[in-house]
Amino acid sequence: MLGQPVSMLIPEVVGFKMTGKLREGITATDLVLTVVEMLRKKGVVGKFVEFYGDGLKDMPVADRATIANMAPEYGATCGFFPVDDQTLTYMRLTGREEEQLALVEAYAKAQGLWREPGHEPVYTDTLELDMNEVEASLAGPKRPQDRVALKNMKASFELLMETAEGPAPVQEDKLESEGGQTAVGVDNSYQHPSSQPLEMNGEKTRLDPGAVVIAAITSCTNTSNPSVMMAAGLIAQKAVAKGLKTKPWVKTSLAPGSKVVTDYLAVAGLQDDLNALGFNLVGYGCTTCIGNSGPLPDAVEKAVTEGDLTVASVLSGNRNFEGRVHPLVKTNWLASPPLVVAYALAGNVRLDLTKDPLGTDKDGKPVYLNDLWPSQAEIAEAVEKVKTDMFRKEYGEVFEGDDIWKSIKVPESKVYEWSDKSTYIQHPPFFEGLREQPDAIDDIKDANILALLGDSVTTDHISPAGSFKADTPAGKYLQERGVESKDFNSYGSRRGNHEVMMRGTFANVRIRNEMLDGVEGGFTKFVPTGEQMAIYDAAMKYQEQGTPLVVIAGKEYGTGSSRDWAAKGTRLLGVRAVVAESYERIHRSNLIGMGVMPLQFPEGTDRNSLKLTGEETISIEGLSGEIKPGQTLTMTVTYKDGSTKSCELKSRIDTANEAVYFQHGGILHYVVREMLKNA
Fold first, then answer.
1. How many C-alpha atoms does 468 have within 13 Å on its Cβ side?
2. Which residue of 372, 461, 625, 666 is 20 to 30 Å from 59, comparing CA positions?
3. Positions of E strands within 291-369
4. Which whole number is the average pLDDT over 192-198?
């Protein structure tokens, strides 16, 4: 977009061999969650992953896309598949011309890119999966790599509850020991000291720990995969026929990644059944998966808040990081679209869907998941209804827009006309004070620590995309400008306004700053006074004093999606460097692109070995000379008692291009200077 090359160290390529076939009842989502788990354990950050093996022969492109799209979740720079007959089948289905198909096949074969049976390419390293061993799975409660077999979900949640709250009550143990759950016993055995009375639509019931309060068929790849979408529709069809209903406390939604999905669900006669269970179309694209789930019903929100209930969302998305789906939902489980429907019917994750009934039919008989789950033959028959004309129609009109889009008045000016009154788009300050030549970079002297963070801090922790409350810095900013809390929308929707986004940086409701004991949320200690305050407020006070800032973190800093505001917000808060044990590739690159130095502790040194509390000052030497890839810098920690300790840090500027960007204060500054130079 900026006309710059993507520079990286030559990556290792890890081969992931796939053999066998998925068993009856196992979905592409189950497969991808298994792949994510395996690759995270293997460790593929900064590497390419190529999938190969004869198991690919019958794997459609939609399934391959589901796997490749989750590369950020398994940490790879990218995941990719070879070209073969399945590629051509997909191109033909989606309306490509035969001439183009012939060209693709000829080129791929000439270049050695075509998958041949039995071919074993040479890789840096390999791992293997027999797809026959994949089982029905979810992942959670807060990381995509934490796979849980469907049969173990109940036990997994009970363990989570016990870890957080102590052993389960004796009454529940007694119910469980007397022969398990029945159609009646299911509801009774959920009873818990924190359970809350609930009235929904005139019906009196109870909200228990584990309640599924959000069930969302959402995500660009899962909801563009015909096999899992048809499976979800078929489950809905069978459930409606038996008289099952979604539990009243479950907020349901359907947000396909493509309008073609709407066409084929309608042609298959499945959309009406999904609607009957509450899975109505809410829009296309990113919804629940990125935090756009919207508010919970008032009664549900009140019950969750008053009981401090640990409730759940089940969604067919890619990411379930803390605080991402909804601020009040502490556990979030990734699952296939058909399992999302099943959990909406069951209403609670404290249920073993492999054994326990989802509900009762019109005659009062228990209905089990096996009674609803479609066969591969049924799914295949439904998928046959997906036709080429659907793709040609929808994508032929993709740039047309509806009447609302066409009615937007657009100024004819060649440059954007900024409005001071807008709370959605404001002129960002990135180029304020920009000079023809970059300023010299100084060493960091006596910086304060803005945040002291642990492992697996995600870009969602750093820059949340979801909703926020009135008492947050972003909420206060909008209220001061006449925006009511019901109109706040989300951080993601206001990413054109730096004033909102910098206030939202490190403001995730689940982030834990180790400078404070037992405090969740975007807070820190303002060291000069010892006050606890919002991270944004503290950063502004440090800026007024001219104090530089650093962030200290553990392993896998910046995991997750390539949230550009995670780097932009960090820069605007006045953070000059991040010191972590390891980085995810995309966020490391983005920090450099915004002029923030990513530094890495040497093996055996970390915030714990240095006994950091956050009240120390940090000085970093080695920035004032020539910036080189991978150079060694020295960090000196000055403790409260005046004692000091030094250690070496490795610069995670990995390439010469990144060094140039950093010297210019970031890629934006570099590009503007180059444009001016060549004007």
1. 29
2. 372
3. 312-315, 331-334, 359-360, 366-367
4. 86
Give the whole-angstrom CA distance, residue 358 versus residue 365. Answer: 11
Token reading at 45: 């950050």
pLDDT (tens digit, 9 = 90+) per residue, 12-41?
Answer: 999 999 999 999 999 999 999 999 999 999
| Angle (CA) 510 511 517, round 5° | 100
Instruction: State the burial class of residue 287 (Cβ atoms within 10 Å of its Cβ: 0-12, 13-18, 19+).
Output: buried
CA 315 to CA 144: how far, in whole Å? 12
pLDDT score, position 174: 30
Query: pLDDT value at position 546?
Result: 97
> Is 400 exposed, middle or buried, given 0-12, 13-18 or 19+ CB atoms closer than 10 A?
exposed
Q: In the predicted model, what is the mean pLDDT of residues 501-525?
A: 96
Q: What is the DSSP letter of 133?
A: G
Q: What is the pLDDT of residue 379?
A: 95
| Mean pLDDT calculated for residue range 77-87 | 96
Question: What is the reported pLDDT for 179?
Answer: 31
The residues with which 651 forms a beta bridge, in sequence order, are 599
Write down the pTM of the prediction.
Answer: 0.88
Task: Give the integer Cα–Cα distance in Å for 104 and 440.
Answer: 50
Burial of 117 (0-12, 13-18, 19+ CB in 10 A): exposed
Q: Where does residue 239 fall: left (phi above 0), alpha (psi -120 to 50 degrees), or beta otherwise?
A: alpha
Least Cα distance to 319 among 231, 228, 218 occurs for 218
- Residues 6 or more apart whose CB falls under 8 angstroms from that of 170 comprise none
List Cα–Cα distances, 187 to 179, 310, 547, 656, in angstroms. Answer: 15, 17, 57, 62
* Type of residue numbered 358: L
The C-alpha torsion from 257 through 263 and 265 to 268, rounded to 10°, is -150
Give the closest residue to 69 by CA, choosing from 266, 274, 255, 222. 222
Q: What share of the chain is helix, strand, coil (3-state, %, to 5)?
A: 35, 20, 45
The predicted pLDDT at position 183 comes to 34
